[in-house]
Amino acid sequence: MTPFNEAQFASRIESHIKRCRPGDWEHCQRVVKWVKELGEGREDLPLLIVAGYVHDLGWRDTVKDKLTIDELLKLESKANANTTPNVKGLLTELKYSSEDIQTVLRLVHTAYEHESTQDDEAIIVDADNLSKLTIDHLREKYKQENWEKTVNHWESELSSRIQTEKGKQFWPKLLEELKTKIRSS
After folding, report:
1. Per-residue pLDDT tens for 136-181?
2. pLDDT of residue 1 exceeding 90
3. Distance CA 53, CA 32 (A)
4. What sections of 39-146 are H helices per DSSP?
5. N or C: which end of the chain has fewer CB atoms below 10 A?
6. For residue 68, which of 134, 181, 152, 128 has the smallest C-alpha distance?
7. How far is residue 96 from each of residues 77, 100, 104, 117, measured CA to CA in Å?
8. Count of structural domains, the chain
9. In angstroms, rounded to a whole number, what is the distance separating the alpha carbons of residues 99 and 81?
10. In this structure, is residue 28 part of a structural domain?
11. Domain for residue 165, yes or no?
């Protein structure tokens, strides 16, 4: 197998991700940062990184503007239905093996179902959730008048999804930092 070249992979998929929601390209880069933090030293890290980049590809060509949390929740099932064909098509085009595509699809589905049963799944779910806890994420993706409601939703829904030990350590601190930044903006 050819060694994974993340920079080359990212440059090949950037235009696809930029056709998703506003801020999805920046979000997926933050997800990958967390994947590397939570999955450090894992043999399967390259496929986790791929999943981190493509996990929101179902949103491609669905919306053009920032959303409220309510709008996102209404559109989520449509985006989730688009995920498998979009990810499979892109990874097939990039000459990924059927086995690797199935692994990435399993990880991506776990990210949007928010339920993990395996360690690699917990990493992608946690990376996706932790990456949201920044003021940049809110600025890039959500209407400002809805930030507080969005963060309240995350606090009630997302905290129970965090499974990795590192994720459990980072979650409360990141959430409090984000709340402080919202109050001061």
Report:
1. 999 999 999 999 999 999 999 888 899 999 999 999 999 999 999 9
2. no
3. 7
4. 45-54, 69-93, 98-113, 119-131, 135-141
5. N
6. 152
7. 26, 6, 10, 24
8. 1
9. 21
10. yes
11. yes
